[in-house]
């Protein structure tokens, strides 16, 4: 068995970067996890959260070997668009989700932009 398959198999968690309502809902659904190093798989972002904190958490989530998917509110993703567009690995996959106060805009979604490029649109 190749090490790549083992790595994929060991990716058991979702990570989330979002507003309080989104993160709370996902935590209530059971995605919350704190590892042995006391690192959480979620970040609650509000108006006082520094951009640097969001960027650092995103980079940390992309480097973790136990995270399969990173969910991020689209309005927060807009703040770190360069980092998201620069992430080109299959794992963890980055998915942009709507929030209660900010509707989803497919024109801004990085995954849909990549799909359009593949189809020459």
Automatic annotation (TrEMBL):
<comment type="function">
    <text>Subunit of the V1 complex of vacuolar(H+)-ATPase (V-ATPase), a multisubunit enzyme composed of a peripheral complex (V1) that hydrolyzes ATP and a membrane integral complex (V0) that translocates protons. V-ATPase is responsible for acidifying and maintaining the pH of intracellular compartments.</text>
</comment>
<comment type="subunit">
    <text>V-ATPase is a heteromultimeric enzyme made up of two complexes: the ATP-hydrolytic V1 complex and the proton translocation V0 complex.</text>
</comment>
<comment type="subunit">
    <text>V-ATPase is a heteromultimeric enzyme composed of a peripheral catalytic V1 complex (components A to H) attached to an integral membrane V0 proton pore complex (components: a, c, c', c'', d, e, f and VOA1).</text>
</comment>
<keyword id="KW-0406">Ion transport</keyword>
<dbReference type="GO" id="GO:0046961">
    <property type="term" value="F:proton-transporting ATPase activity, rotational mechanism"/>
</dbReference>
<comment type="similarity">
    <text>Belongs to the V-ATPase F subunit family.</text>
</comment>
<keyword id="KW-0813">Transport</keyword>
<dbReference type="GO" id="GO:0000329">
    <property type="term" value="C:fungal-type vacuole membrane"/>
</dbReference>
<dbReference type="Pfam" id="PF01990">
    <property type="entry name" value="ATP-synt_F"/>
</dbReference>
<keyword id="KW-0926">Vacuole</keyword>
<dbReference type="InterPro" id="IPR036906">
    <property type="entry name" value="ATPase_V1_fsu_sf"/>
</dbReference>
<dbReference type="GO" id="GO:0033180">
    <property type="term" value="C:proton-transporting V-type ATPase, V1 domain"/>
</dbReference>
<keyword id="KW-0472">Membrane</keyword>
<dbReference type="InterPro" id="IPR005772">
    <property type="entry name" value="ATPase_V1-cplx_fsu_euk"/>
</dbReference>
<keyword id="KW-0375">Hydrogen ion transport</keyword>
<protein>
    <recommendedName>
        <fullName>V-type proton ATPase subunit F</fullName>
    </recommendedName>
</protein>
<dbReference type="InterPro" id="IPR008218">
    <property type="entry name" value="ATPase_V1-cplx_f_g_su"/>
</dbReference>
């Amino acid at each position: 068995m190749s090490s790549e398959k083992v790595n994929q198999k060991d990716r058991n968690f979702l990570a989330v970067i979002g507003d309080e309502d989104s993160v709370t809902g996902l935590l209530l659904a059971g995605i919350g996890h704190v590892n042995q190093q006391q690192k959480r798989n979620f970040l609650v972002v509000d108006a006082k959260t520094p951009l640097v904190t969001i960027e650092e958490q995103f980079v940390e989530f992309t480097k973790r070997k136990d995270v399969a998917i990173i969910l991020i509110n689209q309005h927060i993703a807009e703040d770190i668009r360069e980092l998201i567009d620069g992430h080109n690995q299959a794992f963890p996959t980055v998915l942009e989700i709507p929030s209660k106060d900010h509707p989803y805009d497919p024109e801004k979604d990085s995954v849909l932009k990549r799909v359009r490029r593949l189809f020459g649109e």
